[in-house]
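Progress report, Aim 2. The chain analyzed during this reporting quarter is listed below.
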Amino acid sequence: MTPDQSRAAAKILFEAEKSGTQTGLISLVNPGMTLDDAYAVQSALVQLKKSAGGKVIGWKIGLTSRAMQQALNITTPDSGVLFDDMLFQTGERVPKGRFIQPRIEAEIAFVMKTDLSGGNVTRADVIAATDYVTPSLEILDTRILRADPKTGQARIITDTISDNAANAGIVLGGEKHAIDAHDLRWQGCILKRDGVVEETGLGAGVLDDPVTGIVWLVKRLALYGDGLSAGQVVLSGSFIRPVEAPSGSRFEADFGGFGYVSIEFE
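Predicted structure tokens for the chain:
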């Protein structure tokens, strides 16, 4: 894709989010687009959001589980950018109509103590640069149709990455833990929707260790001369499948001794 095509696609996605009306598949209009093309669209979308007053507060990592990667026929995670208007605190209510087709995932969030960058970053570097970890929920949304109504073609990874990795919201718990206070591989979560258990999972579902996701992200960002900044929040990746969040639903995520997160949709 040319820079003009990337900017045009980004503008369509930006307007779709503002209007709450989904647009067609970016991959259908731009056949053969690569992952680099998709990240170029995402970058142009991020610039539009910044120009509109949005402030970057961190990053998200997605598609970390083997099952989700196999479903999309890929072998790598993806990433997106978190903005200040995406942040919710546990117990809040999401206004009706805020999102188009929201879904919920459970994750461990990292909050950075120091900047972190470079292609040779290690697990020890991530641990040293982390201020604390906390339970969280990610709110996914899609500004792109899940399938083209005419051809039936399903949305693919390049569509998702272009759409800021389906990023829409983050719900942070109130607990703050030192990164070595819990074995994050064995940290579990029970997710309920309207009082019914929908999903359970363990941190090991994220690349065998949520810390590994942060390592992957820093290395990917290094390819573009970027990195993590002190104070930023990083969603390390979900260890459950996405759960639909229709209007009127309430979610409770029980992380045991690690904490608790809830969110309600009007």
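The mean pLDDT is 94. The first helix runs from residue 3 to 19. These observations will guide the mutagenesis work planned for the next reporting period.
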